[in-house]
Design a protein that fits this description.
heterodimer, A: about 260 residues, mainly alpha, Zincin-like, 3-stranded mixed beta sheet, 11 helices, about 60% helix, about 5% strand, elongated, B: alpha+beta, Translation Initiation Factor IF3, about 45% helix
Chain lengths: ~260, ~150
């Protein structure tokens, strides 16, 4: 048996493929799949959530309220003050469950409406608020999210995030998905703003202070963090003013002073 | 924005450095394959020519090659749809040829190598957050003649 020396053929075991092209194709494919899944789930959850009875909503809320781990230090006068505003507002908002307010120590100005009927407002946000009317607007805005069941609509997307991270144990895809996860849409923010205005009308019979906070925010660079989750501030200020003008809402009274200065 | 940079940087670095390393490795592999071309290396259990054998010896070659982040992401995306994971083919090919070359280097002065066998294992196969590496171990019997 003769041995015939031969160099290995480079093309047999290695497919000659363009990796960049393959990567682009796969990324486009995955994004398409995810977009379709999101669209289906978002549409079906909002359909379910909108047609949900008050009783089911209450049940869902109580399901989550026990799992909340927020330090509700009732001896804290600041929290009690915020709570009294929210309790008063709820007689206007008529939410079918109680709302609890808590303060988080974050320096970035922000406020959240969370599952279980909890509003979390950051210390950074409180520092920037100059009068009670602005505070009422911020709290009313967050209650608007509860009223419109926005937090429940976000739940469907949260489930998708969890499901995708289960099926794809790839840190790359996980990272992509966690970007801008669970933030409310522009239209949800706008209707929450309008709800905030309605709350001020109900409470003070006046809308002064509804736009002033956002106006200051849109001029200030410090707000980039808030901008990230609450996009397009300038548009929102314009929309608030437009709503007040087109409905001939009063904005003439003096704004009320804060009972505590949040320093 | 910062998140996107965090995701894209390792992929880009993986692509650049992975491509450079792979190109250089293939160059070196092809050069050394030419050098060792005349040394018969076969998987038969018996030598081609049973005459004049003075001694035989176990020779081994071993290599561990790591996959780069770009290839890993590409393979991860491929997992969703299925199909040939072409991005790992060059990795395995390089490791296999390198292991055989190291085996041949180990067999200095041999007239032929018989019973060539290859073993493959992957290092940190399932550990989450780590980048996988492939180990290929080549072993055979070197035949020495007068």
């Amino acid at each position: 048996m003769a041995y015939i020396p031969k160099l290995p053929d480079d093309t047999v075991n290695v497919t000659n493929s363009n990796f960049i092209e393959e990567m682009l194709k796969l990324v486009v494919g995955v994004s398409l799949l995810i977009s379709v899944a999101f669209l289906v789930v978002t549409l079906s959850t909002s359909l379910i959530v909108e047609n949900m009875s008050l009783k089911t909503e209450q049940k869902l809320q109580s399901l989550f309220s026990s799992s909340l781990e927020i330090d509700t230090n009732s001896s804290n006068k600041e929290v009690l003050y915020l709570q009294s505003i929210v309790d008063n507002l709820n007689s206007c908002a008529k939410l079918p469950y109680d709302i609890t307010v808590s303060i988080s120590n974050h320096k970035e100005p922000n406020a959240f409406a969370m599952m279980g009927g909890a509003i979390v407002i950051t210390k950074g946000m409180l520092k920037e608020i100059q009068n009670e009317n602005e505070l009422t607007f911020v709290l009313g805005h967050e209650m608007g999210h509860f009223k419109h069941r926005d937090h429940l609509k976000g739940l469907g997307n949260g489930i998708i995030f969890a499901m995708i991270s289960l099926f794809v144990p790839n840190s790359f895809v996980e990272n992509i998905l966690s970007l801008n996860a669970l933030s409310y849409s522009q239209s949800q923010e706008s209707s929450a703003d309008i709800f905030g205005i309605e709350m001020m009308l109900c409470r003070y019979q006046d809308t002064i202070g509804s736009a002033s906070l956002f106006e200051r925010m849109s001029k200030n660079d410090k707000w980039s963090d808030f901008l990230a989750t609450h996009p397009d501030f300038h548009t929102r200020v314009l929309e608030i003013k437009k709503y007040i003008k087109s409905n001939n809402l009063p904005a003439t009274k003096e704004s009320r002073e804060l009972r505590y200065s949040f320093e | 924005m910062v998140d996107i940079i965090f995701i894209l940087t390792p992929i880009l670095l993986g692509y650049i450095f992975g491509s450079i390393a792979e190109k250089n490795h293939y160059k070196s592999i092809q050069e050394r394959e030419k050098k060792f071309m005349r040394l018969p290396t076969i998987s038969l259990k018996t030598p081609l020519n049973p005459d004049n054998i003075t001694r035989s010896r176990l020779v081994v070659g071993n290599v561990v090659i790591s996959v780069d982040y770009f290839k890993r992401v590409l393979a991860g995306l491929k997992n969703i749809f299925g199909g040939n994971v072409t991005s790992y083919e060059t990795l395995v090919d390089r490791a296999r040829r390198e292991a055989i070359l190291r085996l041949k280097e180990d067999a200095k002065g041999a007239s032929e190598i018989i019973n060539l066998k290859l073993e493959t294992s992957s290092i940190n196969k399932s550990a989450k957050g780590t980048i996988g590496s492939i180990e290929i171990f080549a072993y055979g019997t070197a035949i020495y003649r007068k």
